[in-house]
Design a protein that fits this description.
This protein is mainly alpha-helical. It is globular, with a radius of gyration of 21 Å. The N terminus is likely disordered.
Length: 363
């Protein structure tokens, strides 16, 4: 990627239209690798250069919106989508996928499912290798899972794997990604042993086809950690998450968003096996999240909520309350009801432990 970006910079002054087109291609690859920050910056820079033709500019606007959604910059994503519509963009399958993902993060589950089902219908006749067709089905499975309709989500990933398996070679990256998403659905429906077996098989296949020094191998380790944790093997989950975080750190950087999210999973697993180590890990993690995502981002607040829930499980309501009170008021006001309910629970339990209402018990 670094070499490609270096060559790209040379084109900006010499062949500006080619620069804009290639910038979009590189940004797309970076986004697929989880490089949301650098991908979004590159797409926005190419768009701001003013040299892209209409087709490329519209693609860059949707790509910018996708990167913003994945990075939790939902207001920025709204603006990028609005710019796409203002420039004459219609409800294409790609636009519906992006808007569906945004609606999902905004809590509009019904609207998200509607957009994604329409995108699936629009790509019914597309080749299995079509990027938009693949993303439409993966995002639909994600949203169905988020809404609690896990059986439908599992059926969606199973159908996707069948669709891909009939048309693509076994080592195709879409099959790899779909297998890992299928593992997630299996564990959500309580089929833990099967999820662990599938996760291990996916990791072995990735090692065989791509080696270990690629982000997708770290992603497979993260998926395995999720399956092991849900199966009750917290110690093995810690090992998987730790290796995933180390590999992501070496490949993407210690404070890259993907690395930090994996460190969050590691910290949660440590809360079960080594609470003291988890405390230190969360303290570092939340500060890193502030630097990477911004103090007013929803991501550090999500990490605080996960940490607080772990503290409540340990019977440490006072500590949980203090962690939650670190969420900025503006972010807290827009937080999901589950976060607000968690704070109420922490306050009530902390005040009950103290035997009186203290200042820290109020919000």
């Amino acid at each position: 990627m670094a070499a490609a970006r270096g060559d790209l910079a040379l084109l900006r002054g010499r062949q500006p239209e080619l620069y804009a087109d290639l910038a979009g291609t590189i940004a797309e690859v970076e986004l697929a690798l989880g490089l949301t920050e650098s991908s979004g910056q590159l797409a926005a820079s190419a768009l701001d250069s003013g040299v892209a033709d209409r087709r490329t500019a519209q693609a860059l606007r949707l790509l910018t919106a996708r990167a913003d959604v994945l990075a939790g910059r939902l207001d920025d994503a709204e603006r990028a989508l609005a710019a796409y519509v203002d420039a004459g963009g219609g409800e294409s399958a790609e636009m519906l996928v992006v808007r569906g993902a945004l609606r999902m993060h905004r809590g509009d589950g019904e609207g998200a499912v509607d957009d994604l089902r329409r995108a699936v219908a629009l790509t019914a006749d597309a080749p299995a290798s079509n990027r938009i067709a693949f993303r439409a089905r993966i995002e639909l499975a994600n949203q169905l899972r988020s809404k609690g309709d896990v059986d439908a989500a599992l059926a969606t990933t199973a159908e996707l794997l069948d669709r891909l398996g009939r048309a693509l070679p076994p080592a195709h990256p879409y099959i790899t990604l779909a297998r890992m998403r299928h593992v997630d659905m299996l564990r959500r429906v309580g089929r833990h042993d099967e999820a662990v077996r599938e996760a291990r098989a996916a990791r072995e296949a990735i090692e065989r086809d791509y080696g270990r020094d690629v982000p997708v191998y770290a992603s497979a380790l993260n998926t395995l950690g999720n399956a092991l944790g849900d199966a009750g093997d917290a110690a093995a989950a810690v090992d998987a998450y730790r290796e995933a975080a180390e590999r992501y750190g070496a490949q993407l950087g210690a404070e890259h968003g993907t690395t930090i999210r994996t460190r969050y999973n590691l910290a949660l697993a440590l809360a079960v096996t080594e609470p003291a180590a988890a405390d230190a890990s969360f303290a570092e993690l939340i500060q890193a999240a502030h630097r990477t995502f911004g103090a007013d981002s929803t991501t550090p607040a999500f990490f605080r909520a996960g940490y607080a829930n772990a503290l409540l499980e340990q019977g440490r309501a006072g500590a949980a309350l203090e962690v939650l009170l670190g969420i900025p008021d503006a972010v807290y006001a827009g937080s999901p009801d589950s976060v607000k309910a968690l704070l109420v629970r922490a306050r009530d339990e902390a005040c009950a432990d103290a035997g009186r209402a203290t200042a820290s018990c109020q919000r």
